[in-house]
Amino acid sequence: EVQLVESGGGLVQPGGSLRLSCAASGFSFSDYSMNWVRQAPGKGLEWISYISGTSSTIYYVDSVKGRFTISRDNAKNSLYLQMNSLRAEDTAVYYCARGYSSTSWFDPWGQGTLVTVSS
Amino acid sequence: DIQMTQSPSTLSASVGDRVTITCRASQTISSWLAWYQQKPGKAPKLLIYKASSLESGVPSRFSGSGSGTEFTLTISSLQPDDFATYYCQQYNSYSRGTFGQGTKVEIK
């Protein structure tokens, strides 16, 4: 079964850092691009970052550029999101989602992990 | 950046109704569009990709159409399990406007 499981969310103060992880199973991880998508409470979906299968291509939405870093470890079948200089507006459920190519639909998605930025 | 605009934002319908949701792109995206269903507290679920291709396991009452800048998701006969929020996603390019703002389908 293809599965993605996020972890690492929690409560963090403004200006703080957090590292999210996404463990993949059931497919050849290195063959697929991966994405992070977030959803603020009661709001819609926001794509925030993409990484190709070989990590050679990375994209970010403007609002997280310079603060967030996406990475992956294909040997560990894992995707990461290092989040620094966190702001209240970064509060959201963060999902990892598999892509199929450089631009693609997302399937499947993980169950999400909640990040709350508050003092 | 490409912007995606869904309409309506909220839709009230009854079981058995035919429901149509529209998604418009600010510039042409060919057929690079997907549709997702999301229920409260759950991750989005892929329904349609490439504008009209039905994902495996998704009921045939769901269908997608369109190309260029205008797309529709149709539920031919609304079922109780279909009350949820639906999002379109353009994958012509990655940008802040990748997803539409969502359409909540409520019970009338």
Quick overview of this protein structure:
The complex is a heterodimer of chains A (119) and B (108). With 119 residues, chain A is an all-beta fold. Helices cover 0% and strands 47% of the residues of chain A.
Would you kindly provide a written description of the structure presented here, covering whatever features stand out?
The complex is a heterodimer of chains A (119) and B (108). Chain A has 119 residues and is mostly beta strands. Chain A is built from no helices and 10 strands. In chain A, the strands form 2 sheets. A 6-stranded mixed beta sheet of chain A has the order 2-10-9-4-5-6, with no helix packed on it. In chain A, strands 1-3-8-7 form a 4-stranded antiparallel beta sheet, with no helix packed on it. Chain B is globular, with a radius of gyration of 13 Å. The N and C termini of chain B lie far apart (36 Å). Chain A binds chain B through residues 37, 44-47, 50, 59, 61-63, 95, 103-112, and chain B through 32, 34, 36, 38, 42-46, 49-50, 55, 87, 89, 91-96, 98-102.
Total helices of chain B: the number is: 0
Overall radius of gyration of chain A: 13 Å
Stretches with pLDDT under 50, minimum 5 residues of chain A: none
Task: Round the mean pLDDT of chain B to the nearest integer and report it.
Answer: 96
Tell me the number of strands of chain A. 10
Q: Tell me, what's the shape of chain A?
A: globular
Helix content of chain B: under 10%
Number of helical stretches of at least 4 residues of chain A? 0
Mean pLDDT of chain A: 96
For the biggest β-sheet of chain A, the strand order reads: 2-10-9-4-5-6
Q: State the assembly state of the protein chains.
A: heterodimer
Instruction: Give the beta-strand count of chain B.
Output: 10
Helical residue percent band of chain A: under 10%
Query: What sequence of helices (H) and strands (E) makes up the elements of chain A?
Result: EEEEEEEEEE
- Structural Rg of chain B: 13 Å
Shape of chain B: globular
Most extensive protein-chain contact, per-chain counts? A-B, 21 and 25 residues
Share of residues in strands of chain B? over 45%
**Beta-strand content of chain A:** over 45%
Succession of helices and strands of chain B: EEEEEEEEEE
